[in-house]
Design goal:
This protein has 316 residues and is mainly beta. Helix content is 2%, strand content 50%. It has a domain of 174 residues: Methylamine Dehydrogenase, Chain H (7 Propeller). InterPro entries: Quino_amine_DH_bsu, WD40/YVTN_repeat-like_dom_sf.
Length: 316
């Protein structure tokens, strides 16, 4: 299953699909548009692309393609909270449930912790909710059709990124567990088949391949395998390019006279062996903002591009 690229701007949520899009080339116009007032802070699209959910600083709204509000859920009473936060929605694959990460610490203060809600996507009524115990600024959901569970990656800034696994049981109650095997790591991505995931161990500067759902370590890629001048293995940007290849970013420093220049560089990884295949492109000052649909191509700066099968001179 390919990922859709969902973007938001003032007045519009846009959805780009990649099943029938001419590749590679200019990204072009979106396949679906949802009109909205203002610019959403975050958004999600149902898997049939008929509904959108979007978040303002105080309210979650569910709309149809005409922009009509089907229901709303107010989760804050003022636009500015205790600290910066962004709530996050995500539709289940069957479209029945809208998962909602509610950063109560950011909204209400340090004596509160974040919540995960299961909301009826048709009516907006809360089916179930649990306390995460985290104090995050934002979060992302990762799910695959083959898996009965969903991963929730909560960003706590410098305090790390606790990872949770959850599902809705037959009694419509959220069953939640914290992935202790990922403590101290940052989740990079989940494999297209949902059987594995990659995390970045920022303490030991390495990429780790885990099995799911147990989190067993299947392989690692150490920092020195990327670049002898690399200082950090980064959790952004990167992810699964397809079922066989992944992209990982590393950061480094190079000395020129009295100056130290910081740089980023992307590397191609064999997801089965965790071996570095080669770098992708030259070193750059800033990390490039790549989107990976999962079909072996990537979207960057409004273009759909493919990774060359052989290294260019700048990559050697």
């Amino acid at each position: 299953m390919l990922r859709d690229l969902v973007t938001s701007k003032d007045g519009e949520i846009a959805v780009y699909t990649f099943t029938n899009r001419a590749l590679p080339g200019i990204l072009g116009d979106p396949d679906v548009k949802f009109p909205v007032p203002g610019c959403p802070e975050s958004s999600a699209i149902s898997h049939d692309r008929m509904l959108a959910a979007y978040v303002t600083p105080t309210t979650l709204r569910c709309i149809n393609r005409q922009g009509e509000v089907l229901w709303h859920y107010q989760f804050a009473d003022r636009p500015k909270g205790y600290m910066g936060y962004i709530a996050q929605p995500e539709f289940s694959f069957d479209g029945r449930v809208l998962w909602f990460y509610k950063p109560d610490c950011g909204i209400r203060g340090g004596n509160h912790t974040d919540k995960l809600l299961a909301i009826n996507a048709s009516t907006g009524s809360v089916i179930s909710q649990v306390d995460l115990g985290s104090t995050g600024h934002g979060a992302r959901f990762l799910a695959r059709p083959n898996n009965p569970f969903v991963l929730l990656d909560v960003g706590e800034g410098q305090d790390g990124s606790p990872l949770y696994m959850f599902y809705l049981d037959d009694a419509e109650s959220i069953q939640l567990s914290r992935c202790h095997w990922c403590e101290g790591n940052r989740l990079l991505d989940m494999s297209p088949d949902g059987a594995r995931c990659k995390s970045i161990d920022e303490i030991h500067n390495r990429a780790i391949l885990h099995s799911l759902p147990d989190g067993q370590i299947l392989g690692t890629t150490e920092l020195e395998e990327f670049d002898q001048e690399a200082c950090y293995v980064d959790a952004y940007p990167g992810g699964y390019l397809d079922a066989n290849l992944a992209v990982i970013n590393v950061r480094g420093e190079s000395e020129y006279s009295d100056d130290i220049e910081e740089w980023n560089r992307l590397f191609l990884i064999d997801v089965h062996t965790m071996k570095v295949i080669r770098p992708i492109g030259p070193r750059t000052l800033d990390a490039e903002d790549w989107f990976l649909p999962g079909n072996g191509l990537f979207v960057n700066a409004g273009r759909i591009e493919e990774i060359p099968t052989t290294a260019t001179k700048s990559e050697v």
